[in-house]
Design goal:
This protein is of the alpha+beta class. It has seven helices and six strands, in the order αβαββαβααββαα. It folds into two domains: about 1-65, Arc Repressor Mutant, subunit A; about 85-190, Arc Repressor Mutant, subunit A (Orthogonal Bundle). Helices cover about 50% and strands about 15% of the residues.
Length: about 200
């Protein structure tokens, strides 16, 4: 009986965590080990719900995404919804992804830690000069909270204005996404006059 019971007991906690969002090794090592031990059972379990487990053991993160239907198979309703990102949130994600790529090019395997000021400086160059810079920084901070909820960054304990860019963003934001966003960005800059205010975030 114990042998039959163990896989279900082992998969319950990591499966619940995956249903809530991204599982990161550094956040809970015990949970991560349970996930590794039960990944085969979890893959089979979520497959019947139209999901698949994405797990990067070297980077230390895992998440669920909607499984693409095979030929001749009717697509199932989406259990994991698509996120509609606002322009400012997309811009910040693109900037963070590119900064992460820069660290990879230099061969620096250390964590990517950025201050709110550094992120704000990188973002502000894409917007017309704001009359109230403090208000704009507050908006950027709000956008960062949304990105943190997505699991792409986390705020360092005791350092509210400092964030770590998590490497899972590489899996969500590939070269094609960056290329498409670069085209959107160029179109936006061409259409925006110097006197226009930065767009409000509706997302």
């Amino acid at each position: 009986m114990d042998d039959l019971k163990t896989p279900l007991d082992t998969m319950a906690r990591p499966l619940i965590a995956l249903m809530k969002g991204v599982v990161v090794k550094e956040n809970d090592l015990k949970l991560w080990e349970q996930l590794l031990d039960s990944q085969v059972v979890i893959r089979d379990y979520v497959r019947v719900m139209g999901l698949e487990l994405l797990l990067d053991e070297s980077e230390g993160y895992a998440w669920l995404r909607t499984r693409e239907p095979v030929e001749g198979e009717d697509p199932l309703p989406r259990l994991v919804g698509r996120r509609q990102l606002s322009y400012p949130v997309s811009l910040i994600i693109a900037i963070l992804r590119k900064k992460l790529a820069e660290t990879d090019v230099t061969g620096d395997d250390s964590r990517l830690i950025l201050s709110l000021e550094e992120i704000s400086d990188a973002v502000k160059v894409f917007f017309p000069t704001a009359a109230n810079e403090a208000r704009m920084v507050d908006k950027i901070n709000t956008h960062l909270n949304k990105i943190a909820d997505m699991g792409f960054i986390r705020r360092l304990k005791g350092q509210k204005d400092t964030i770590e860019v998590l490497r899972i963003v590489k899996a969500f934001v590939d070269a094609q996404w960056l290329s498409e966003f670069d085209n959107r960005l160029k179109e936006y800059i061409d259409q925006t006059s110097p006197d226009e205010a930065a767009p409000e975030d509706k997302g």
